[in-house]
Recover the amino acids of this structure.
């Protein structure tokens, strides 16, 4: 069977998409048929070919077709160490990218590795999936306060895996944002906070989300900043955030009072770390993704096809 006049690259790309949507997104054959505008019989055939050709093992490999080209182009454009790109989900893009991130990271981890985890919805999803996949003993250390954002990931994963050991999770025991810079400074000197922040210096991997300056930002949805704060940040040139620290279109970290009230590892220190993995996707995050990528903070990008292509086309 040939697709698009028998072009093998396009055929491999279509087989991969069918396999991804079926095995990773949990879509039915009929849903895939409608989404990709192909017959259900072709969906069945492509799934069988994916199995026969080894695309489907314990994970769906992203080594075929358009993705490998996009990955190489993104790596070259931004001077990255690696990139992992998956089909764009028709549903929840954050969950889809989080699954991809968990798959990628799980493959890289070694026994007794230490992984720093950032702040945000996509990071929470990633942690949830990763804890469900893990078969190695590793440790996770939070980069910021605000433990509530991790709660669902930890509770859900512990229910799925009886062997889950909560001692492997080290969370900074504090709010994300305090009322004054002086109070934040005092909190950071507390032994229970300082010990965990010191642990982040010895990580093997660091996982961060890339946020946009809008009402979908976790820091806004959690009630930490208001509409007025968003407008002030926008006037100061903010375009996105990592660890609730805002930066401009050139990736420069802004000097704003909010940052002085954060309980968080400073963004500048991430540039000195190895294996910093940025996870983000969607049209609303493109400006913040581009700025984060040119800042030198991110070593590895995990995103979706449409976002990767837009970064190449628009910047």
């Amino acid at each position: 069977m040939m697709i698009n006049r028998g072009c093998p690259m396009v055929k491999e790309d279509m087989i991969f998409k069918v396999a991804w949507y079926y095995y990773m997104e949990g879509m039915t054959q009929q849903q895939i048929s409608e989404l990709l505008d192909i017959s259900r019989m072709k969906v069945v055939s492509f799934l069988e070919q994916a199995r026969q050709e080894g695309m489907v093992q314990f994970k769906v490999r992203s080594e075929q077709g358009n993705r490998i080209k996009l990955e190489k182009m993104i790596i070259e454009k931004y001077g990255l160490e690696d990139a992992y790109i998956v089909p764009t989900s028709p549903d929840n893009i954050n969950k889809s990218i989080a699954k991809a991130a968990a798959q990628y990271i799980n493959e890289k981890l070694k026994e007794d590795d230490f992984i720093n985890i950032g702040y945000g919805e996509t990071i929470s999803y990633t942690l949830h999936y990763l804890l469900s996949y893990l078969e190695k003993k590793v440790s996770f250390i939070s980069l910021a306060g605000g433990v509530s954002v991790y709660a669902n990931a930890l509770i859900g994963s512990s229910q799925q895996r009886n062997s889950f050991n909560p001692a492997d999770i080290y969370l900074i025991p504090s709010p994300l944002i305090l009322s004054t810079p002086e109070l934040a400074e005092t909190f950071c000197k507390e032994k229970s906070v300082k010990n965990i922040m010191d642990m982040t210096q010895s990580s093997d991997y660091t996982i961060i989300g890339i946020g946009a300056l809008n009402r979908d930002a976790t820091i806004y949805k959690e009630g930490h900043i208001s509409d007025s704060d968003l407008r002030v940040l926008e006037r100061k040139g903010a375009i996105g955030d990592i660890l609730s620290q805002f930066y401009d279109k050139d990736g420069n970290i802004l000097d704003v009072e909010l940052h002085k009230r954060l309980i968080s590892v400073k963004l500048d220190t991430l540039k000195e770390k190895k294996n910093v993995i940025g996870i983000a996707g969607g049209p609303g995050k493109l400006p913040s993704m581009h700025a984060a990528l040119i800042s030198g903070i991110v070593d590895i990008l995990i995103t979706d096809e449409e976002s990767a292509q837009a970064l190449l086309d628009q910047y």
About this structure: Residues 1-9 have pLDDT under 50 and may be disordered. Residues 8-52 form a domain with the Arc Repressor Mutant, subunit A fold (CATH 1.10.10.10).
